[in-house]
Design brief:
Elements lengths: L1 H29 L9 E7 L7 E6 L2 E6 L2 E8 L5 E9 L5 H16 L7 E6 L2 E7 L7 E9 L4 E8 L11 H22 L2
Antiparallel strand pairs: 1-4, 2-3, 4-5, 5-9, 6-7, 7-8, 8-9
């Protein structure tokens, strides 16, 4: 009984230690400010140490497990408005990162096919690769999703742009949303670039 208790305590300490190490790596990806006119961090939360070291991703009715050893969620919004961007930064298990990345890329491509031609794009910049889908019109639960991979840190960043009620928005139409999202992404990637120098 005591041995089992000590073993559980040891496992918990190792997990907490791994999470403490990864937090310093994740923080710059989750704390960028001043990305686009007036938008700010509305809330930030850390992934609980009690959560399993993976997350489930469902695509076409199939559930996949993707490794996650730590994570931070940051929500961006204008004052008094609904969230504009919901950003999730996750540290993968280094031993599983390459396989997780391939699986996430494949799943993203499959899901993106339903959005029609021109909605899906691949991304590549200094220190990152990624994918994004921008819907051709306002509608559905999400207007756009961006997925970024930072291989050096084994970090996956997922940015969701939810479709919120008109009164909760800071844009009038789809064209304005596209411009604001592009400015947000440019600001975010510039911020990450400054941190990685």
């Amino acid at each position: 009984m005591i041995r089992a208790g000590l073993l559980c305590l040891l496992v918990a300490c190792v997990a907490a230690g791994a999470q403490a190490d990864s937090f310093a790596t994740l923080k710059p990806y989750a704390s960028c400010e001043g990305l686009v006119r007036g938008i700010a961090i509305k809330r930030e939360s850390r992934r609980s140490v009690d959560e399993p070291p993976w997350r489930e991703v469902t695509a076409k009715g199939v559930i996949y497990k993707i490794s996650v050893i730590d994570g931070i969620r940051t929500v961006y919004a204008w004052p008094g408005k609904e969230p504009f961007a919901d950003l999730k930064v996750e540290a993968s298990d280094p031993a599983k990162y390459a396989a997780d990345k391939r699986e996430l890329q494949r799943i993203f491509e499959v899901v993106a096919q339903s959005e029609g031609p021109g909605a899906y794009t691949t991304l590549k910049g200094r220190g990152y690769t990624g994918q994004e889908v921008v819907k051709p019109a306002l509608g559905g639960s999400m207007l756009a999703i961006t997925q970024l991979f930072f291989d050096a840190d084994k970090v996956v960043v997922s940015i969701y742009f939810p479709n919120v009620p008109e009164l909760g928005r800071n844009f009038k139409d789809h064209g304005e949303f596209v411009k604001l999202r592009a400015a947000f992404m440019k600001g975010y990637l510039d911020c990450i670039g400054r941190h990685s120098k």
